[in-house]
Amino acid sequence: MNKLSPFIISGKKHTDERGELQFYNDFDMSQIKRIYFTTHLDTEVIRAWQGHTIQSRWFCSVEGSFVVKLIKIDNWVKPSDDLKVLEYTLTAEKQEILYIPKGYVNGFKALKINSKLMIMSNFGFSEIENDEIRFDKNKWSKWDN
Hints:
Structural class: mainly beta
Distance between the termini: 30 Å
Strand content: over 45%
Number of helices: 0
CATH topology: Jelly Rolls
């Protein structure tokens, strides 16, 4: 897997008479230093665009579903207006984790009410300063889907 580009880490599940087990055996969590969650109470809230120059993150829908958009930034001070938008759909029903490397901005929106996204980072909260860069939510993509 190329750690310079986003990719999906697939998990699996096993169901028997005792219930269901979901697992991510191919996910190396040794880099994870922080985990937090965001819950969207409706499908109108858009969290975009924010990115990191040194921090990588992993997204996993643990409840409901999200559309997640990513853009590789060419210039953090004055990025181009026509950068390519990558789009992923993460759902709690599918065992998938989206890896987002440093150098990308992300935006996301819930597709179902009360959706919850787990976000993992390779830096602790107090380890980095000024690594969150934000841009207008409509700079690269329309969010009407």
